[in-house]
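Appendix B. Chain record.
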Amino acid sequence: MTGGISLKILYLIIYPTLSISLGTKTMKLDQFLKWKNLVSSGGEAKIFIKSGSVKVNGVLETRRGRKLNKGDKIIFLKNELIFE
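Structure tokens predicted for this chain:
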């Protein structure tokens, strides 16, 4: 901790456009939402996905186990993300 601010938050403030590559070719949709800190748990991801709040490549996606491939565009609420 630095002055009450976690290093992760400080890092994101200093380097907001940094892209991190996992080195993996695929990832499940629910795992991706958790990894990007858009949801706090797999259960929360499941609720959002099943409710129709997620699109992958412009298509509504309701399968939480949907495999994402490099270059897939995910739209979740007002967030647009690219799986890299």
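Further analysis of this model is presented in Appendix C.
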